Amino acid sequence: xxxxxxxxxxxxxxxxxxxxxxxxxxxxxxxxxxxxxxxxxxxxxxxxxxxxxxxxxxxxxxxxxxxxxxxxxxxxxxxxxxxxxxxxxxxxxxxxxxxxxxxxxxxxxxxxxxxxxxxxxxxxxxxxxxxxxxxxxxxxxxxxxxxxxxxxxxxxxxxxxxxxxxxxxxxxxxxxxxxxxxxxxxxxxxxxxxxxxxxxxxxxxxxxxxxxxxxxxxxx
Length: 220
Hints:
This protein has about 220 residues and is of the alpha+beta class. The protein has six helices and eleven strands. The strands form two sheets. Strands 1, 2, 3, 4, 5, 6 and 7 form a seven-stranded antiparallel beta sheet that branches. Strand 8 (about 185) and strand 9 (about 190-195) form a beta hairpin. Helix 1 (about 5-25) packs across helix 5 and helix 5 packs antiparallel against helix 6 (about 170-180). The model has no long low-confidence stretch (mean pLDDT about 95).
């Protein structure tokens, strides 16, 4: 049976890679959200269409999906993506996508948005405000956000995933490398991956299935 945790392990690295690319793009720019036009502006030179995901409340420690936030009168055109996630949740039995609200201890905004990024091919932004934060996807981010990674960046992303999230290491590693178009040669305690440019990546696992070592050979 597919679970939120399994799905998260499969997609977290891809979502995180896109967040790192977005961070490289926007740097320390301020942000401004305009629900009327359905856009977010970073600084005075970057502007993108958005799709709303939901909000975190720091007052009661809960998540609220944008499709369930009827009190705010949000434009329906900005709810298409979170509505798609709701339908995906119904189809696959992922309650975190179908329940209107739940405690952040169960799944916070970053986990939900990272998974959504992996599923939808987008990146997200967390916009803090007094008492909480809004999460939304960029609907027309530049191609560099989803471009294939260099091997060095691939290792960096995987390292951050296994250090920052309680996921099944093997599932996370194999899923991400496949999504990045590496060719895998798995073994019981290791994994060797090859890219079309001749680069290789080896990942070793301990007896508990945790990553114990990663090494790369990069073809310039």
